[in-house]
Structure formats: C-alpha cells, structure tokens
Amino acid sequence: MSRTDPLTVDLDTLPLQPQRCMHVLALILRRHNWQHAVKAKNIGHRTAQSRGRLCVWVFRFLHHNPVKAFKLDPRSFSGRHADFVLAHWCAEAKAGRLAPGTIPTYYSHLKTFTRWIGKPKLLKPIGAYFDDPTLYRRSGITTNDKSWRALGIDVASVIRDVEDYDVHAAASLWLMLAFGLRFKESLMLRPHVDVASARQAYGDSGSGGEDGSEAGRYLDTHRGTKGGRQRYVPIDDDLCRHAITYACHVAKGTQGSVGDPNLTLVQALRRLRYVMERFGITKRDLRVVPHGLRHQFAARHYTERTGLLPPVAGGQPVEAVADSAARQHVSALLGHGRPQITNAYLGQSAVMRSKPPAGSTPEPLLQPATGLPRSGGVLR
What's residue 206's pLDDT? Predict the structure, then answer.
C-alpha cells in the first residue's frame, strides 16, 4: 500500500494540507463515518451517506464560494467557517429554499464532524445562528391527511395491479397497509417465523398488555425497525390475515424474507421504489406515497378506539381521556415511544388546539434548498 492509502495514513501526524482538502476529508470520513455520534455503536448506511455528503458539500461550498473562498484543511475548520456556513443556511431558509426540518439535520451532522476533529464545543447553539426560530423549528403537527383513502384511492385495487408485476412489492404494500410497517420493515419481515402467540408476545398472562388487544396471534416486528425497537401488532382482522398469508406465499422458505432473495437489502429497497414509480405511487402521479399507508393504519386504529375520524380527517373533537388513550395505543403500534408523535399522523387534538402555544408558533414547511444535499439526497 502507498503512504496515501486511507488504511495506512495516520491523521494524528499528517501535516495540514489545505491544497488537498477533499483528500484529507476522505481520510476523516473513512476513520469516523461509521460511528454513532455519541453512542458506542455503528450507524446505518443512509445516515453515513447523508453525513458524508453534507461534509463534502460544506468544504466545497467554503472553497468555491464567490463571496469569500476559503482554502483550508478540514481539521482547521473553525468558528468563522461555521458562521459563514450557517449564515448561508439562514439566508436560504429565509428565501424559502431550505426547510425548517432540514436545518437541524445539517446542524447535527456538522456538530458530529467537529467532534471528529477534536472541537466538540466549536458550534454555538443552533438558535444563535438564526434570528427567527421558525426558520429551523418544524411543526410536528400535520394539517394534511396523507392517507390514500383521503384521495379516494382504492388501495386493494392498486396493490392487485402491482401483484401482476412484482409479488415482493405487492407483499410489502399489503404489510404496510395491514400493520403500518415502514418500507424497510416490510422487506425484512420473515412472515413464517415473525408471528408470535399472545403468550410469546406478552408472557404467561397471554394478555394484550398495554394495547388491550386480545388477539391470538401477533406480528413480531423487530427487523429493520428504528433503533432495533421491537413491537407486536395484533393479527385480528381479515386484512391482517390476508397480508400475512400473502407474505408467506411470497417468501422463499421458512426463513425467507418478503424481499427478493436474489437482491441485497439496498437493491431490494431500490427495486421497491422503482415499482412504486412505475405504478404512479408518487406525489407527482397519484399524489400518495407508500408511507401514506402507515398514516391510514394510524387513522384506522384511532377510529376503532374513539369511534370518530382523527382531527386531520375532519373528525369531531374527542374527550381528552379517550383521545389520549387512543394516541398512546396508536403510538405503540407504530413503534414510537412518544404519543406526541401521533400528531404527525392524526393531527392535533381539539384539546391541544385550545391551549395557548408554548413558545413559538408552528411554522409552515418550506422547500429544500437548491444546491444543498437533502438528508440522504444528492449533493450538487
């Protein structure tokens, strides 16, 4: 190996090389970009990709900026460079080209990078860079019903069309609809073995536990979940039973997953997105995305608990105790630890809307910045 090979270069003794900025950055990413920002564990491919692209964009922006070009070794990144970058983000946000929900992600990636170069306290609090908190604070309350049903789409008909083209994609859609699974969770599910009895799910009591369900079988969802969090979703109606039966038919062998066994997970996810585009399951065509089935799942279970549609679908106000219990139930089924997250699926309850806002008012979502990488997007 040569002296410049990333596996042999010692960053701790390598002299500063402003003229080889991107080379040094590649060495830093090679050493650190597989680690969690604060925990002693690895991170996922998408997070590493998003973080790496943001770092590359930052130093290209500093080097090629027409206002003031900086030629620096990434290890020399300092407060004035951070001020310059954050000022640009602030201007982009004010111009409507950078969404409030994107800025905290960028800021988090940049803060992680400063830890890598031994400057963990270099960045000021995010609020110090913005004169208006609404520029970087995203409201977690949806005002638009994102379910397929809201647009009058016959979900079963669409999925059956997909079945004729790709049974693996169709199985994923059935699972998303019936159990509220995410893309990755649906592909990684092993339907023959990821079904548990009530006793397996909730111990010797065999009771539905917090969700109150008395179903005999539960879907054991733990593969591909965020943070590896396990959850049990009851198999208690015809839709759930059909989704499981179809997934078992598609999976190859008792240990097989729903995804195509001839593809890697990354390839299977890419294939699934391709099939969605082919059948118009996009915001551009049908104006819905697969994640909308998760919204529809949440709304269905909220309605089952309260007898009324969720607020985002125009439902009538629900008594506070019943609303809270229903949201707790939906949150658990979705695999979230906080019932507040249901605001993003169901809308805000009438009880919460009647309270005065604590702090700043919710801000509208803005469009992503041109030239900036999305979270996991393409860097210009």
Answer: 47
CA distance 287 to 264: 29
pTM score: 0.68
Q: Taking 50 as the threshold, does the pLDDT of residue 365 lie above it?
A: no
Q: In terms of residues, how long is the chain? A: 380
Backbone angles phi, psi at 221, to 5 degrees: -100, 110
Residue 190 near residue 223, CB atoms below 8 Å? yes
SS (H, E, C) 18-62: HHHHHHHHHHHHHHHCCECCCCCCECCHHHHHHHHHHHHHHHHHH
Q: Above 60 in pLDDT, residue 38?
A: yes
d(CA 180, CA 294): 4
HSE-CB for 133 with a 13 A CA cutoff: 8
Closest-CA residue to 175 (of 106, 227, 223): 223
Phi, psi of 42 (to 5 degrees): -80, 165
Contact residues for 65 (Cβ-Cβ < 8 A; gap 6+)? 84
Helix, strand or coil, per DSSP, at residue 217: strand
Give the residues across from 221 on adjacent strands.
Answer: 231
Token look-up 């999976």 returns 251
- Please classify residue 350 by burial: count the beta carbons closer than 10 Å to its beta carbon, then call 0-12 exposed, 13-18 middle and 19+ buried: middle
Kindly compute the dihedral angle of the four CA atoms of residues 169, 188, 228, 299, in this order, to the nearest 10 degrees.
Answer: 30
Q: What is the pLDDT of residue 340?
A: 87
Which of 163, 192, 149, 199 has the alpha carbon at shortest distance from 313?
149
Q: Which residues contact 200 (CB under 8 A, 6 or more apart)?
A: 218, 220
Q: Does residue 357 or residue 190 have the better pLDDT?
A: 190
Taking 90 as the threshold, does the pLDDT of residue 112 lie above it? yes
pLDDT-above-90 percentage for the chain: 71
